[in-house]
Structures are given as structure tokens and as C-alpha cells.
Amino acid sequence: RRESSWKQTGERDARRRPIEELTNATESKEAAEEEEQEQEDEASARKPSAKVQAEHEEQEIDPTQYTRNRLQVLAEVKAKGINPYPHKFHTTMRLPEFVKTYSKLDAAQRLEDKIVSVAGRILSIRSSSTSLHFYDLHGDGVKIQVFAELRCSGLNETEYGKLHAGIKRGDIVGIEGFPGKSKTGELSIFPSSIEVLSYCLHMLPKGQASAANAAGKSQHAKHKENVVPEAWRPGVPRNLDRYILKDQETRYRQRYLDLMINPEVREVFSTRAQIIRYVRRFLDERGFLEVETPMMNMIPGGASARPFVTHHNELNMDLYMRIAPELFLKKLIVGGLDRVYEIGKQFRNEGLDLTHNPEFTMCEFYWAYADYNDLMKVTEELVSGMVKEITGGYKILCHSNGRDQPPIEIDFTPPFRRIPMIEGLEETSNGKIKLPNDLESEETNKYLQDACERFDVKCPPPHTTSRLLDKLVGHFVEETCVNPAFIMHHPKIMSPLAKWHRSIPGITERFELFVNKHEVCNAYTELNDPVIQRERFADQVKDKEKGNDEAMQIDETFCTALEYGLPPTAGWGMGMDRITMMLTDSQNIKEVLLFPAMKPNEDIVVTSAKPLGTAG
């Protein structure tokens, strides 16, 4: 009987094997088909046609109606007693951390037992069916994919469809789900829940950056080393044509939109922050103390510039927004703080152009027992070291001659060229300018006016000797300063706060660093004789009486401080905005200011304080 039972069992097993093999084969085939279908779904969702379908509503409606529709939906939600703007969403990690932690997963790998929550802004929407949606979630400069499936959502088909129909480009969402990679290898979060945290009520700009990028590359194809890379970094050319949001007015007036749509802009301002951090660290490591000085002053001093005027109601007096912190910082040197610096805003009531903004950021430091020779060495070390640390080398490329021309190379390798101002002017003019010996004479002033006329150099009144000379130097000498160069030994009439040269009469121990034909740094051995300082201030007052609004006034509080003894001191100042322009290939200072000064927008008319979305 036992043998008969074994025989029967063997026969049953023999009959089962084909069935099991058929079942396994069927299941494997179904799994393979499911995997293949998922790959096809993801691939099809990335096609332009899928994007068009996903954004069909945006294309079919004008922006004003789009905003009204969104406001109406929100109003209906609020009418039900639901707050559409949650107070809080708990995230377990930021998106950069998500990318760093899970970027090495294999394609199709899913960590279903690892639940995380992240948040960010939706900037792209794709769908391949009513039960499968893909989003690009952006935050902190990175992007991940949201792989939303009906089967993982815990919702029925109606609820799922309603949720995803309400998510639009620009919305900020919070997502809980597990990390993984899609079959095509894209890092994704597979959500079990999605919550809209804040709604974008306006249509976002749309465009194809990749096509413009390709065009930008072909433009400089013959300059192989100048090709714009995919991922921009400091020190290499930028291609603004590949930006999705291109209109400059919109970019500067609505910087939040610029940052949202054009990812490269974030890197520009990250570079600016790196520059300021480097300067701060450089000075801190050398024993300098960072301080803060007043923004409003009774007398505008420390530089030759036209100030902004404000009014103090309690004191019933006008005050001036500071044009430089110099005089305050030198008072601190008198008080025994031998190495001080300040990084902050200055305000000058002057023109708006590609390299000037009424408020700008400057670093100034003052160094007791040093002179301008020490400053030149430190400047070379600071600037060249900064460029090397941030860009990876001493040479950078930028479009100095316009974006329609190939970029040029600027070499920050030290040492920098040194150009005595007067000799440099005579040399670069090919001997056509030969200044009289007495630079403060009426003869020199007349000679300079004639020289400006001969060479068609524009100098608005008043025609003081210092202004005329500055314009001629700008026309001849500064034009030769593409690589970093020190223009040095300025005449006393141009430098009321600088100390006279110890061996050359009529000249001061001063230099300006020029890069790419623009001033970046100004420094000198400080004048510490209170008697001579008063005389220099008196000369400035004479210039002001002639109509020079930028001339200095006499600051008696500073002169009194000098009477207590200012040690031999060297002073230095550098504009943070202009050095940022060079390292980010920016031809307009507005590119490196988050909120630059703009002329009033005539299209914006304020009629009432009526809230957005109210009737009437």
C-alpha cells in the first residue's frame, strides 16, 4: 500500500509540475510586462506631448483668468471651513540630504520600509495615465522626481484624480513616502500622501532652456575652451540665452521668480556669499576685528561722493547716509584697535549704470603700523587666493566685450602690474600728454581741459583738476588694465585723505586695483597729521564752492581724533559687487544684487489697498 501511495503521489506531482511551471512563467511574464509598461509610462510622460497634455489648462487660459480660477477654488475650500494654508509640515530631511543619501541606489530599487517626508516646489508636471503622475520637486538648489501612483496613495480613483488635478506648477507641496529609483534610474520619492502647503496663484513662465543652450554652444564652437558647460561654475562664461525667464526687467523686479525659474541664478548669489566669506575669513585669520559703524552721519565723509539726505524727526535735523565708514574706522585705530574691518552697505546719490548702484557693499580695513606697500602685497594675496579657491585656478573667462563676442581671459596670477599714474598717462597717450610739474597750478588745469577737448574725453562740470585728470586716466590708462593692475601714486589733489609720498613731491602713497578696466580696490597710507588734514579738507571745501557736489566737508570730530595721535596706518577698501561681477561673468551690476535699484514701473498703478481676489 505504501508503494502504491508513493506511486500515486509521484503521478500527482508529475501532473502538477507543468501547471506550476506554466503559472511561474505566467507570473514572470506579467512582472516583466509590468516593468516594461512602467518604463514606457515614465518615458512617455517625459515626452513633450505629455507635458503639453499635463499643462493643457495653462495653455488654454489667459494668466488673469488662471489666477481668478485658482482664487475661486481656494475660496470654495475656505467656505467649507478648511484652511488651505497649513501652519506646519514636518520634514525628516531636506532635498539635498535626500539626494546625498539615496543617489547611489540601483535603478528600480525601492526602499519601501523607509518612510521619509520632504517638501519643495513643483516646477514640472507629467502624466502617462490617470493613475500615474510625475512631478519635478525643487528645493535648496536640487531636484528629485515624485513618482505618484494610485496604488500607493491610499486613495480611491476619484480622490486620487481630484488631488492631482488640483496640483499646479509653482505649488509648494509636502510629501511623505519612500525613496527609490525608477526603472529608468531617476532618483524619486514614491508618495503615500501629498499635501499642498502653499498655492502659486500665477502661471509660471514656460520655455525650453536646452535648445537655447545648444544654440549658445554652437555660437562659440570654434573656441573650444570657451564653450559654456552644462553646469555653470564661477570663473567660466554664462549663457543667459538658456534661461527660461529671459526678460531682464522681470528678472530684476521679481527676483523670487528669477531664482525659482532659472536655477543658475542661485549659483551666482552663492558665489557672492563665498566671496564675502573668503574676505571675512582672510581678515579674521590675520587678527582683524570686525566692527560696525553708523549708517547715518552728521557730515558725509570718507570719500568723494554725493550723499543721500534723510531727516531725524526727534532731533529735527538732516542726516546723511554714509558714503564710506573710513573716518569712524580710523577713530578706532586711534583708540587702540590696531586692526579693524567692516563689511557693509554704502550709499551714494549718483547715477545708475552697468557698474553703479546707489547702494553697494564694500569691505574696508585699517591696519596700524603698515603702509601702502604692505597693502599691495596683501591685496595680491587676498584677490588671487580668492579667485583660486572659488574657481579652482587663477584664470577666468568673461564676456567683457559683450555676449555676442567670444569671452576673454583674465589672469589673476600674482604679482600684479604696477603703473604710476602720471607716467602711465604720458606713456599710454604715446607722449601726446605731458603734464606741467606743478599739478595744482591754473596752468595744469587749463592744459587738462585742452587735452580733454583734443581727445574727445567728456568731463561734466565743474572742471576741477582732479576731475579732468581722472577722466583722462580713465580714457588712456584704465583701458589697458584687463589683467589686475595697480594704478598708483595719485596726485595730492586727488587724494585728500592719503599721506604724501615720502620721496616724490606732489604725489601720495595711494593705489587703485583695476581689473577688466574697472576699479575694484582703493588703498593708501593714511594721512595722520591733523594740521595737514585740515588743510586738505579746506581745499575740498573750495572745490565744493566751485560746484563739485562730491567734494568733502571739514569733519572737525575726525580732526580732533587725529590730534590724539593716529599711528602710521594703511587703509584699504574693495567693492564686493564688482569682484562678484567678474567671477560670475556678469556685465550688469544688477545681475549680482538680489534687489537692485530700479526706475519706477509705470505699468504698476496703486489705486487702493483692496486685497487680491476681493470683489468690486
Q: Report the mean per-residue pLDDT as an integer.
A: 88
The counted number of beta strands is 18
Rg from Cα: 33 Å
Strand order of the largest sheet: 6-10-11-18-17-16-15-14
Which regions have little confidence, pLDDT < 50, spanning 5+ residues?
Answer: 49-56, 209-229, 605-609
Shape: elongated
Q: What is the share of helical residues?
A: 25-40%
The assigned structural class equals alpha+beta
Number of helices: 19
Q: Report the span from N to C terminus.
A: 97 Å
* Strand content range: 15-25%
Main sheet overview: 8 strands, mixed
Task: Briefly characterize the structure.
This protein has 616 residues and is of the alpha+beta class. The protein has helices at residues 2-46, 48-54, 56-60, 63-79, 95-102, 150-153, 157-165, 209-219, 248-253, 255-261, 263-284, 326-334, 372-391, 421-428, 442-454, 465-476, 530-545, 556-563, 576-583; strands spanning 116-129, 132-139, 142-149, 172-181, 187-198, 289-290, 296-297, 309-312, 317-321, 339-347, 359-368, 395-398, 408-411, 417-420, 485-488, 510-515, 518-525, 569-575.
